[in-house]
UniProtKB/TrEMBL annotation:
GO terms for biological process: negative regulation of DNA-templated transcription; regulation of secondary metabolite biosynthetic process. Gene3D superfamilies: 3.30.1490.190, Winged helix-like DNA-binding domain superfamily/Winged helix DNA-binding domain. Pfam families: FUR. It is found in: Cytoplasm. This is Ferric uptake regulator, Fur family. Zn(2+) binds at residues 95, 98, 132, 135.
Amino acid sequence: MNETEQLNRLRASSLKVTPKRLEMYAYLSEEDRYISAKEVLEYMRDKHPTMSFDTVYRNLKSFAEEGLLEATELDGEKSFRVTCSAAHHHHHLICRSCGKTKLLDLCPMRFVEALDPEFEVVDHKFEIYGYCKECKQKGLI
């Protein structure tokens, strides 16, 4: 995602566009993987040494509430990535080591719905966790 697209996505939200928010969102856009608030803080502190963890986390949470980021939990810690741009319904394979994701064009809900046709599903989230080829080859697991 280029800078113009990042700026347009932020402007389309109800959040005020600030240089720090734009910088944080640009970092997440460039990484294209799940990133912890701690990693974002480390990145932001290079230019903003007084920035706090609470500020970073609050902004990430606001981005997620606006639909700009997706959140998941990796190793007991909430991690974030830019919302997938795929227009169709899908799910992800997620590497527990590096946070990279891979699109999965499959939804298991038809199997779940068949188990109890009287249960009304209103939402779902389906993620598969494991280790990517690169992390296995590097011995990071």
